[in-house]
Amino acid sequence: MRYNQLGNTGLFVSEICLGTMTFGEAKEGTPWGAIADVDQKAADEIVQRSLDAGVNFIDTADVYSFGESERLLGQALKNLGVPRKDVVIATKVYGVMGDKPNDRGASRGHIMDSVEASLKRLQTDHIDLYQIHATDPVTPIDETLRALDDLVSRGLVRYVGVSNWQAWRIAKALGISERKDYARFETVQAYYSIAGRDLERDIVPLLQEEKLGLMVWSPLAGGLLSGKYGPGAPGNGEGRRANFDFPPVDKDRAWACVAVMREIAQKHGVSVATVALAYILAKPFVTTVIIGAKRVDQLDQNLAAVKLKLDGDDIKRLDEVSALASEYPGWMLSRQSAGRRPVDFEPKA
Question: Does residue 159 carry a catalytic annotation?
Answer without folding.
Answer: no
